[in-house]
Task: structure prediction
Amino acid sequence: MSFDLKALRRAVNAYGVVGRIVIADHKGSAPRETGTSMLVWRDGQSGTIGGGALEFEAVKAVRARLGKGQPQLDKVPLGPALGQCCGGAVTVVSEIFTQDRLDAVDTKQPVYVRRITGEADAPLAVTRAAAKARSGRPTRLLLQSGWLAEQIATEAHPLWIYGAGHVGRALVQTLTPLPDFDITWVDTAADRFPVETPSTVTILPAANPAAAAIHAPQHARHLIVTYSHALDLELCHQLLQHGFTSVGLIGSNTKWARFLTRLSALGHAPHSINRITCPIGDPALGKHPQAIALGVASALVMSLRSGEEDMGATGGQATA
Result:
C-alpha cells in the first residue's frame, strides 16, 4: 500500500478540503494492516480502515478538524479504548489536505516524507528509507520519531472492459474499489451503461469497440464480456495485432474452440492466440455474474502480486 496522490488530488478537486487517515502502525489483531488509508470530506468518504468503532471515531475526529489543517497522531488500544475484541493496537495518522498542501508535495521524489509530530529534522531511519526509494528500491510506510514516509503510488494498471451487461457491471463494481487499476469501460452505445457509474471509471461509448481498442496502451489488460460473439472475435483479432499484457474472454470451452479455429484462419500464430484466457472466472464459484467477477478480480490481483504478465483471468466457466 502506498500514498495515492492521484486519488487525493481528485478528491481535493471535487471537495476542496479532504482529510486522509492512514494506519501508520499496528500490533496484534487489528481491523486492517499498516498502510491502509481512507479519505474523508465534509459529507462523504472513500476507502476504509476497517469499519467499526475505530473508523467511526477517526472519521468523526477528522471532520471536526477539516478547517484547522494540523496533522495528528493517535495511538489507539482497540480493546480498552473502543470496546473491540481485536485485542491489538493501531497508530493512526490523520492529515488535512488542500490544493496548496498538495502543490507542496514533491512529485519528483518516490517517497512522501513529512513531519507529523516530531522534531524539526527527520530521523536517520526516515532519510535512509527515502534514499533507498530514490535508488529504485520500494519502501514500506515508515513512522519514526513523529516523521512519516510513504511510497508515492505509481500509475495504476490500465484495464479495459468491453461490455456493459450483467457481467461487465459486476466486474466494474468489484474492481473499481481496488487502487491497482485504471478502468476504461467500453460498449456500443451510451445508453448501455448504468445511469450512475463510478467517477474513477472512464466511460467510452464506441459504435465499433474493436476500433476503439487500438487506442488502449499496449501494456493494458483487457476483459471481453460483450453481448456478441462476432464482436468478441473482432476484439480478439484487433488486440492480437495491437499488443497487450493480458486478455480474458468470457465464454465456454466450445466457444473458445471455435475462436481458436477462426483466429488461426485470420493469420494468428497458436502461441499468440493462447495468450488469451478463455473461459474466465473460477468454476468453483459458479456462473453468477458477481461470482465470475470475484474469480476474475482475484486472478488479476494475484497476477499483479506475482509479477506475471500473461494473465487475464483464471481458466474456468462463464456464460456468454
Observations:
- The chain has eleven helices and 14 strands.
- The two ends are 36 Å apart (CA to CA).
